[in-house]
Amino acid sequence: MFKEAIYHKYDSEYCYALSKHELVVRLRTKKNDVNTVNFLYSEKYSELAAFGQYKVEAEMEKVSADDLFDYYEAIVEVDLLGVAYCFEIIEKDKVIYYGDYKFLNRYPRAPRELFMITTLTEQDIFEVPAWAKRAIVYQVFPERFCNGDSKNDPQNTQSWDAQVTYQSMLGGDLRGMINKLDYLQELGINLIYLTPIFESNTNHKYNTFDYYKVDPHFGTLEDMKELVQKAHQRNIKVMLDAVFNHCGEKFAPFQDVLEKGEESKYKDWFDIRNFPVEVKKFPSYTTFAHFGEMPKLMTKNKEVAKYLIDVATYWIKETDIDGWRLDVADDVDHEFWRAFRKAIKEVKPDAFIVGEVWYDSHAWLKGDQFDSVMNYPFFEAVKLLVGQEKISVQEFDANLGFVRSLYKQPAYQVLWNMLNTHDTARFLHFANEDAERLKLAAFIQMTYPGVPMIYYGDEVGMTGAQDPDCRRGMIWDPQKQDQEILAHYKKIISLRKEYEALQLGDVRTIYIDNDKQIYGFRRLYKGQRVDIYINNDRINHEIEIPWEGSKIHDVFNDIEFEVKDQIGSIQVNAKSGCILA
Q1: pLDDT for 222-277, tens place per residue?
Q2: Sign of torsion, CA 241 243 249 255?
Q3: What's the whole-model pTM score?
Q4: What pLDDT, on the 0 to 100 scale, is given for residue 468?
Q5: How far is CA 168 from CA 413, 420, 476, in A?
């Protein structure tokens, strides 16, 4: 048994309260190294705990694996007064016990040989909005989605199907979004995420000039209110993009610094190394990505923090939006995000808070900052497997298994799983314009745990290289849309909404065949079981699977397969999948 690989840490993603009387515990071991892991535990102050005589023993389940490790997990009923516990680890005929970060070859007998959890308090339980677990997101880049009011078009507005550049303006606006709500409702999505809508001089609006003003080229405050109201009437929620790491050069406090220099009362709102201040590349102040036009805001400054939090609560109170997506979230201090969460949840307890972090995000997902993050590791895994065919299904499983190990269950359930965004090339571009690969990627996205996020136009076959090409005008002409891809999206979205297990179920890997490139996983929720198989190969494959019952129904392809002696033979089509419900 490789003891060096065994890992557990209390009061972390490896041990936390899921509810008032549920505790989640995890243990990491070397991959394929142990046979069984048992969780032994007792109420902390019980005499039984003091003598190592445990009330309960629960066998832990291997819930995921990556290249190096297996991850075991158990959810147990506990008392809020706290828990004393250890792990019993079995490898064939060898048994060891792990408690208080020490290994024992005998049954633990004293409190110092056990992990101890202090009193579990309700206010420390990580809760995410219940509605978010069923969300299907549609990301809109407002300037490129639909032009509903030509009267507010910017100067030099190009034709809608023009080849876009970094400076292009096509005239998309909030009125266009309002006009297309029926389209979005028919598609089946129930959450719209808009990239920034506030006043600035760019098409992307990530350089905010006025945080309290809708950009005039997008419309008015009343347009924003109407969009949210009419979306809500269709059971569609709306989230906005908060750019609080940096502002635009025309932001009034920064203009004051440019004008008054060291005499400006706002000089401490920014990280200025020396005066006078000049807007240029690599300027004398901290910026976003060295762009002088985007000076960094110092959220450690109490005035700045209060200003930005007031902005966030204002838009919820004024327009009834349902949450915020937080741009460049990893460049802002944790203290600010803790204050941000507290203020947002006081105004709207079920507001959804999602951070933009491209890597391991567990530091923000402890329950005191964000509810979720944009799941770029999922994006990368699907891109490499399906889009570029660079990894095996075994590697794909390991990549996703590692993500599972990073987060507490509430956050894991609502990670935003996307195939591309406004910051990446389109998935079809990665996939060499192969529509079948996009359809398979969408199939995985809609059946895997987390919140699927569709970037506008994916559903009609839009393509495009890196920014700015990935930000073309939305295709509205039915003759130019890929109607087969659109029908596929509608179908798989509908199936996700039909089966609760696909929305809320936990996940287990059930099948891996690198030669045939077939991968299977199971979703389980309150007795409902759905098995999903994908085929990343270019030919159809038949496989045999264990099955109780006389028939197997593939609800995705509406096909039935025969079962003999509890073994079913199913066909998984090339670059496609099946859903066995």
Answers
A1: 999 999 999 999 999 999 999 999 999 999 999 999 999 999 999 999 999 999 99
A2: positive
A3: 0.95
A4: 96
A5: 38, 21, 19
**356 annotated active-site:** yes
pLDDT at residue number 47: 59
Query: Which residue type occupies 152?
Result: N
Structure tokens at 191: 């959450």
Indicate which residue of 88, 113, 173, 356 is catalytic.
356
- In angstroms, rounded to a whole number, what is the distance separating the alpha carbons of residues 109 and 101? 15
Architecture of the structural domain at 246-296: Alpha-Beta Complex (3.90)
Contacts of 477 (CB under 8 A, 6+ apart): none
Active site includes 241?
no
Mean pLDDT over 88-98 rounds to 94
CATH class belonging to 130-245+297-498: alpha beta
For CA atoms 222, 227, 231, 236, give the dihedral sign.
negative
427 touches 420 (CB < 8 A): yes
Kindly report, as residue ranges, where domains of CATH 3.20.20.80 are found in the chain: 130-245+297-498
**How large is the average pLDDT for residues 188-203?**
98
Class of domain 506-580: mainly beta
Tokens representing 19 are 């509810």
- Mean model confidence pLDDT for the chain: 95
Q: What homologous superfamily is domain 3-124 in, according to CATH?
A: Immunoglobulins (2.60.40.10)
In the sheet with 61-65, reading across from the earlier edge strand, the strands are 15-19, 22-30, 69-77, 61-65
Question: What pLDDT does residue 54 have?
Answer: 65
Nearest to 533 by CA among 491, 579, 476: 579
Return the half-sphere exposure (C-beta side, CA atoms, 13 A cut-off) of residue 211. Answer: 22
* Domain ranges in the chain with CATH number 3.90.400.10: 246-296
Confidence of residue 123 (pLDDT cuts 50, 70, 90): confident
Report how far residue 428's alpha carbon sits from residue 482's, in angstroms, rounded to the nearest whole number.
12
Active-site annotation holder among 249, 322, 327, 458: 327
Q: What pLDDT sits at residue 315?
A: 98
The band of 117, judged by pLDDT with boundaries at 50, 70 and 90, is confident
Closest Cα partner for 523 from 550, 543, 562, 496? 496
**Structural contact between residues 271 and 247, judged by C-beta atoms closer than 8 angstroms:** no
CATH 2.60.40.1180 range(s) for the chain read 506-580
Q: Is the pLDDT of residue 102 over 70?
A: yes
